[in-house]
Design a protein that fits this description.
Shape: elongated
CATH topology of the largest domain: Rossmann fold
Order of helices and strands: HHHHEHHEHEHEEHEHEHEHEHEHEE
Oligomer: single chain
Distance between the termini: 73 Å
Strand order of the largest sheet: 2-1-3-4-5-11
Mean pLDDT: 89
Strand content: 5-15%
Structural class: alpha/beta
CATH superfamily of the largest domain: Response regulator
Number of helices: 14
Low-confidence stretches: 1-7, 58-65
CATH architecture of the largest domain: 3-Layer(aba) Sandwich
Largest sheet: 6 strands, parallel
Length: about 325
């Protein structure tokens, strides 16, 4: 039997501090998020961690601090949308990267039904995570209000219609939709249709506002159809629009996924894209670039959104107040328009 003395001693924070030439408090700050640490000290600590082979004892830290050292990535949508809409995967990847740099864990929670939401609420309120990244929200959802009432640090992707005082990271939905609509009009298109998202989501509501404002007197409510951000809903909405207004010469879909569905409907109807009808989307989450033909779209800064959300919720957890952040989008012109 191997004696206890034969087991190599695990390196400690003090070992890392000695190798890095800094205090053990500095090492602790680096491991716990890097706040108030100079870039030089961080680099020295990172190198010392690699040299010593130090790994944090997260269980002990959780007992000592009362924290779980993890955040929840909460999607309040049906489960299949996690895989059908690549925007969620991009946010998930960005948040995972941001937390990995802090030696923290991301827990994926899906709550698309009332029963799932009740279970998730119990889980979060029990302290299994330190905070929540809410990446989708509907105005009718009660889960956000429950989390806020329970004092759970929560940051939203997009303006939370159910509780606008909650810190959030968003893009300027209205200005972005106006920019795309203006681009289509400047290309000579006059009968422009919109496939919008659900009106109880920030993207669905504010992209419609931007489209309507930019169209001005030319806005025609008969050229607006609502989808659900799913490809099939874009297909169905485009089919209804063609039946009602066959003279449409452009369509702006409030997501790339719905734009792809719209193109499928146009092809069935014998319409060429962009020769007969121009098509534009919103998101630029990867689908737009690989689609045939590639989609003209509005690019959201997915990495910046997810990293900013992580920074923000960690500040909220630490008791540092944070203001909501609005990030810029950009117009990406490809072959469909």
């Amino acid at each position: 039997m191997m004696a206890a003395a034969d087991h190599p001693r695990k390196p400690t924070i003090r070992d890392v501090a000695a190798v890095a030439g800094v205090s053990h408090g500095t090492v602790s700050r680096v491991i716990n998020g890097g706040h108030w640490v100079s870039p030089e000290a961080r680099a020295a600590v990172d190198a010392a961690i690699l040299e010593t082979g130090y790994t944090a004892n997260h269980a002990a830290r959780s007992l000592a601090t009362g924290r779980a050292n993890s955040l929840a990535f909460l999607l309040t949508e049906p489960q299949h949308l996690l895989f059908a809409d690549s925007t969620y995967a991009l946010l998930l990847r960005g948040a995972t990267e941001a937390l990995a740099a802090r030696s923290m864990t991301l827990v994926l929670l899906i709550a698309g039904t009332p029963e799932e939401q009740a279970t998730v609420e119990q889980y979060v309120r029990a302290g299994h995570v330190d905070g929540v990244l809410l990446v989708s929200s509907h105005e009718s959802d009660s889960l956000l209000a429950s989390l806020v009432a329970a004092g759970v640090p929560t940051v939203c992707a997009g303006i939370p219609l159910a509780a606008e005082a909650v810190p959030h990271v968003s893009v300027d939905e209205v200005a972005s939709a106006r920019e795309m609509t203006r681009y289509l009009r400047e290309r000579g298109h006059q009968r422009i249709a919109l496939i919008t998202g659900p009106n109880d989501t920030p993207g669905g509501r504010f992209r419609l506002v931007g489209f309507q404002e930019e169209m001005g007197d030319a806005f025609d409510p008969d050229l607006v159809e609502q989808g659900s951000y799913e490809q099939s809903s874009g297909d169905a909405a485009m089919t209804r629009l063609l039946e009602r207004a066959p003279d449409i010469d452009a369509v702006f879909a409030a997501s790339d996924v719905m734009a792809v569905g719209a193109i499928a409907a146009l092809r069935r109807a014998g319409k060429r894209v962009p020769e007969d009808i121009a098509v534009a989307g919103f998101d630029d989450s990867g689908l737009a670039e690989i689609h045939d033909p590639p989609l003209t779209t509005v690019r959201q800064p997915w990495t910046d959104i997810s990293h900013t959300m992580v920074d923000m919720v960690l500040d909220v957890i630490a008791g540092r107040p944070r203001e909501s952040v609005v990030l810029p989008t950009s117009l990406v012109v490809r072959e469909t328009a």
